[in-house]
Amino acid sequence: MPLQQNQQLDNGPNTSLLADDLQEQWHAKLNVHLCHIVIRPASNRSGGLPARSDGFPHVWEATVFNRTYGSGCPFCSGRAICQHNTLARKAPEVALVWDTKKKHPMSPDQVTVFSDMRAHWKCSACLHEWQASVTNKVCGKTGCPQCAKADAGRKADGTRQKHPTFAMAKHALLQQWDRDSISKNGNFPDNTTLRSSKLIWWQCHECPKGKVHSWQAQAFSRTVPKKPTGCPCCAGHKLCECNSLESVCPDIAADFDIEQNGATAAEVTSSARAKYSWLSDEPGAKKRSVDQRTHHTRKSSLLMLGARQMMSATHAPPTNRQTMQPTDRAGYHNRSYADETSAHKQRQAKGCWKP
Question: Which pLDDT tens digit goes with each residue over 87-145?
């Protein structure tokens, strides 16, 4: 329990204004030199403060201000070395992998488990040697990189897991497989797995101008679950007649300064981030990118395209709008703009959002 004020006046400084936990951690013997002054929570005075962890007493010096605003024990947090937070005590299984034949500035008994010191490690299974920080080895729970590569893709029984080929999986990307390039590089759908790093030629026939988009990409980059790559021409990364500035935004293309830029509006994409000069700019003005000029136009085009696709994929809405009350997420598109705005304001007022 915290000391009472009259007892503190007899034994040392008055700490009754501090929090209960700080009064319990106040070191009376080491702080007796502060006499009978009143210690306030925002004081910059330093004091000795004890704490215990695993039976080991911790004593350190810190200002009352820092302790009041959350500063804790440096030994328990691993910022200072102690008997209980060394690598040898906290993670003895990791200390066994410590390569003792290499020269280290400190030993496992002299570093904490949160140390950023890079140490040498040696695997007891494959005898592979590598370097990693102590905190990465302990907190990150990283093991031998050589063994991790050998065990990658293995099943529970230890056998190697093989990914199916494009032909076995009957993958939808077979429609974009460039059949003409098979004879050149020998990459067939029946000998290329979904996670293969082979460079495959692909073709896209979605060009509004009737062109064929052809590009080369690794197989796994197109089949990964997170952010698979698609057609670079449709994405605006590769120039085509369908995505040029002249084709997408003819009004802005008329403002393109051909003499200063050394290129025409048909030779740059509508989403290019390179900066060019424009006829409407004043002399000496900074160059602006094509993406900056065409952002709103391309965004409106995408919204209109998405709206047309949604209308074609859904049934015709009922004539009576009062009956349009969706009961599940599938009917979300039937909600009117006023209803959606009202629901948005209600969610915003409550401070919670739902997907």
Answer: 888 888 988 999 988 889 889 888 988 888 999 999 988 889 999 999 888 887 788 88
Residue pair 274/268 in contact by the 8 Å Cβ criterion = yes
Q: Cα dihedral sign for 271, 174, 221, 214?
A: negative
Helix (H/G/I), strand (E/B), else coil: 160? strand
Q: What residues contact residue 204 under an 8 Å CB cut-off, 6+ apart? A: 176, 212, 213, 214, 215, 231, 233, 234
Taking alpha carbons only, the member of 25, 92, 13, 99 closest to residue 62 is 25
* DSSP per-residue codes, 231-300: -TTTTTSS--TTTBHHHH-HHHHTTB-HHHHTS-GGGSBTT--SEE-BTTSPTTPPPEEHHHHHHHHHHH
Give 69's DSSP letter: T
Could you tell me the pTM of the whole model? 0.44
**CB contact at 8 A, 30 and 47:** yes
Task: Return d(Cα 111, Cα 88) in angstroms, integer.
Answer: 9
Query: What's the CA gap between 233 and 246, in Å, rounded?
Result: 15
Provide the residue type at 339 as one letter. D
312, 259 in Cβ contact below 8 A?
A: no
